[in-house]
Automatic annotation (TrEMBL), chains A, B:
This is Guanylate kinase. One of its GO terms (molecular function) is GMP kinase activity. It comes from the Bacteria. Belongs to the guanylate kinase family. It catalyses: GMP + ATP = GDP + ADP.
Length: 207, 207
């Protein structure tokens, strides 16, 4: 047994819109009950079926701006005219307690998180092809033609940010993508730079 | 599908003698039939049950020194008055063909491999405790009292080298250790720095 309580991992699932990070995240949370999902706050309208406090905390502009003032966000951004933000307390508390926290977040947000948590595990979800990405953005059906083109262009540009991440997972099968993410979490816990005290403890016979 | 054939991973299982890397390696190879095991050459006497060409290539001193002359080793070393070496051809050929190659090797050998293959996956197998390590060295029963003390002291010193590795896996249960190594292999294949061409190919629509 370890003498010191190990902090949890911050697992950041990110990628261009339409890559399927939402679907993968949902499947991952279903399989790995010990993971804690960070719920974002947003000022955008709920899509059909989205539930307050489960999918998002839906806020008015005024409420959101008040939270910014109170330094309640780990990061926040304005994307496509809406605010999105990651409430700070939930993440910090869980990591401190040794729980692994999952963040599903756009690329802009992930890069801000990386500045504060360089030790996080940054996973870039890739669509299997640009053609497939276009189909997925279209299928969502909640956007106008203009918005679809805007999203696709942006997704194309965003692929350049993959180099700032630790891992890349192609979403051609949700099940396989989830298995890969599970493996990444296990492997990260074995990384030498996350276990610096371990061999000292073994030497000293504390373990 | 990728347009370029990806090279295989070189997976180096290493650790102090008595940590159980041999047992773990055997269990891993049994579970993962696609992995290719590199067989070492040695001048030490076969232990009971060891088979030529399966456990080692057993060589005379003269034969081994000839191989050194012919530059046939990826690395070689003299440990406890015996030569050990990793034949070069098998490893290079398999990596080139896209096969993952496993090397089970002492720490001295692993560090030499790392100089030539910094992109290898270096896994340090730790015993659950120093007490357990002592028991395991004793149980092996093939060494004299003097040799046991020599091995234990050396194992104690060798723990310092863990920082040169990528991963550390504690061998308290062989099954769990094998699962961790399997996860590490999956995760490593997802690392961004091993997939640099991938997003370019996706952008260009080659995938």
């Amino acid at each position: 047994m370890l003498s010191k309580k190990k902090k949890g991992l911050l697992i950041v699932l990110s990628g261009p819109s339409g890559a399927g990070k939402g679907t993968i995240c949902k499947a991952l949370m279903k399989k790995e009950k010990n993971l804690k999902l960070s719920i974002s706050a947003t000022t955008r309208q709920p899509r059909s079926g989205e539930i307050e406090g489960k999918n998002y905390f839906f806020k008015s502009e005024e409420e959101f701006e008040k939270m910014i003032e109170n330094d309640s966000f780990l990061e926040w951004a304005k994307v496509y005219d809406h605010y999105y933000g990651t409430p700070k307390d939930f993440v910090l508390k869980n990591l401190e307690e040794g729980n692994d926290v999952v963040l599903e977040i756009d690329i802009q947000g992930a890069l801000k998180i990386k500045e504060k948590f360089p030790e996080g595990v940054f996973i870039f979800i890739l669509p299997p092809s640009m053609e497939e990405l276009k189909n997925r953005i279209k299928k969502r059906g909640t956007e106008t033609e203009e918005e679809i083109i805007k999203r696709f262009k942006s997704a194309y540009e965003e692929l350049n940010y993959v180099s700032r991440y630790n891992y890349v997972v192609i979403n051609d099968s949700v099940e396989e993508a989830v298995e890969k993410i599970k493996a990444i979490i296990i492997a990260e816990k074995c990384r030498v730079d996350r276990n610096k005290d371990l061999y000292l403890e073994i030497k000293e016979g504390l373990v």
